[in-house]
Design goal:
The complex is a heterodimer of chains A (116) and B (114). Chain A is mostly beta strands. Chain A has strands at 4-7, 10-14, 19-25, 32-38, 45-51, 56-59, 62-67, 72-77, 86-93, 104-106, 110-115. Chain A is 0% helix and 54% strand. The N and C termini of chain A lie far apart (41 Å). In chain B, strands 2, 4, 5, 6, 9, 10 and 11 form a 7-stranded mixed sheet that branches. A 4-stranded antiparallel sheet of chain B has the order 1-3-8-7, with no helix packed on it. Classes of the chains: A mainly beta (116), B mainly beta (114).
Chain lengths: 116, 114
């Protein structure tokens, strides 16, 4: 099955700096790579995703890049703000079962702290 | 437009008791996934269900754990004879029949075993 590794486990930045979180995956057939943000006591929420036919995607201060050859993808947050402080999870979609099979394998998470 | 609803949000059980966690998916969603999150760890897949069918239970412990998603009513994750190691947050997610990939998560049920 799929295995997703995520680094770093903790990341501390000053407000206004950039933050980068990296993930690698093992199954070359995986085709969908979302990033989730989890605030304390809440459920994970999707913040951005990328599919295997795209190399980069951007949404305001958040961007994700995908390198299929190397099987790694990264989350980039620019101009960080204190409200960006949360746990961030990368994930990869299992390739089995076609479009109706949505099982995601998650990385271990990164605790991002943005200091004012 | 309600999201994924989980209850109870918090549950305390003594060792040996049973825990039942409920999940109502988003309207129009027929796929339900259960994940477990241990303290300061990631989300571990447990089981994937469609209405009245278990599609993938590869992450479910072989004993004491069961899940169902009946034709009517919420999905239920049942843990029998709970032990301290079952203490965790249990998250339910749902997706529509033709999935774009996104899973929509509930707020979780936090189980504490005394």
């Amino acid at each position: 099955g799929e295995n997703v590794e995520q680094h770093p486990s903790t990341l501390s930045v000053q407000e206004g700096d950039s933050a980068v979180i990296k993930c690698t995956y093992s199954d070359s057939a995986s085709n969908y790579f979302p990033w989730y943000k989890q605030e304390l006591g809440k459920g994970p929420q999707l913040i951005i995703d990328i599919r295997s036919n795209v190399g980069e995607k951007k949404d305001q201060r958040i961007a994700v890049t995908l390198n299929k050859t190397a099987k790694h993808f990264s989350l980039h947050i620019t101009e960080t703000q204190p409200e960006d402080s949360a746990v961030y999870f990368c994930a990869a979609r299992d390739s089995a079962g076609g479009t109706s099979y949505g099982k995601l394998t998650f990385g271990q998470g990164t605790i991002l702290t943005v200091h004012p | 437009n309600a999201g994924v609803m989980q209850n109870p949000r918090h549950l305390v059980r003594r060792r040996g008791q049973e825990a039942r966690l409920r999940c109502s998916p988003m309207k129009g969603h027929s796929h339900v996934y259960w994940y477990r999150q241990l303290p300061e760890e990631g989300l571990k897949f447990m089981v994937y269900l469609q209405k009245e069918n278990i599609i993938d239970e590869s992450g479910m412990p072989k004993e004491r754990f069961s899940a169902e998603f009946p034709k009517e009513g919420p999905s239920i994750l049942r843990i029998q004879q709970v032990v301290r190691g079952d203490s965790a947050a249990y998250f339910c997610a749902s997706s529509p029949p033709i999935s774009t990939g996104e899973l929509f998560f509930g707020e979780g049920s936090r189980l504490t075993v005394l």
